[in-house]
């Protein structure tokens, strides 16, 4: 990048911020509910976001394409359109009652970067494509033994065709295939022939995302460069089955109480975490869903069934394998002691992902050139960058400071920090651009 181009970069990115703010405000106004933002994958909220972004891209004069999964590609052509492109990607769906920035910030940053490059009147050596990815938050919306990150995995040829029917959206009870067809997309083409995206045609995949924890806030830094993404092992639809009985007449020592048994399993996992944590091993876990059946339970009835989920994450695949075995063994032990039965189902497993070393080094070089303080850090949450890495695409991520975490209504990314991250992203894709 020439010195003159670098000097103009900050002003060009700042000039794109009103467009970014308008997009964020529009999304908030049209996809908000009583308790936050809801952009259901292959649903009304997600589609509104796609239509909004498509209108913005058309105003910027970008080339548009859609794949069979409904992912949207918005391209600024470069001098050599046969050269592998930069791909800037993120998702536009949200968790139920989530925040406005999780996912959408990455797409809007890509459009802002392109707007800045256009205002600088530079000629890029290769295309830059913003990819709007469907159904990244699949874990919050779809039951069944699917591998998550549905949109990116379909585009990269990583989704097994059976997942189209196994993945069932919780709010509707209908399959992924049914929802895709209702939206006018082509699930029948998934898994047939070559994937839509050819990894050899992508120079690198770049994703901006709000941080989903408090690390940058605690360190008072605006952005982070992600070095790795924790893997996970998940039980999505586990059950503990005991026996319903009269709560006043059944002696405590003969009950088959599913709540007590499930609680014992939860405490067993917590005890194992403490042991591993003391030994310096990386593990976090969440029993995110834990409930009895409101159609059957009552104040004075011994609970005969509990449904629950378990999400275990680590950067160490050995820890994840150890915990998968431990949970099954602990469930068997508790079941024998409490006279219940655990139906855990199968684990969905994602291995830890190390992001591209060269791209990370380049981002740190850019942060120094632009006088941006950036932290090298791991991601606790999963992202589409994992799938691009799995497919052989060099991938990198930039985190943006976010005080209140993500998957909550009160996400707290500031436009100033977003501008800083977008400046670094723009510097990255400009590369050897000619001004």
Structure summarized in a few sentences:
The protein is an alpha+beta fold and 435 residues long. The chain has helices spanning 3-15, 17-31, 44-59, 104-120, 138-141, 150-156, 163-166, 176-182, 215-219, 258-278, 317-338, 357-369, 384-390, 415-430, and strands spanning 32-33, 36-37, 63-66, 72-76, 85-91, 128-133, 142-143, 168-169, 202-210, 223-229, 231-241, 245-246, 284-286, 290-291, 301-302, 305-314, 341-343, 348-350, 353-354, 374-379, 395-400.
Quick check: average pLDDT?
95
Distance between the termini: 9 Å
CATH topology of the largest domain: Aminopeptidase
Helical fraction equals 25-40%
Strand content: 15-25%
Question: Helices and strands: which structural class?
Answer: alpha+beta
Characteristic key phrases:
elongated; 435 residues; Alpha-Beta Plaits; Aminopeptidase; alpha+beta; 6-stranded antiparallel β-sheet; 21 strands; 2 domains; 9-stranded mixed β-sheet
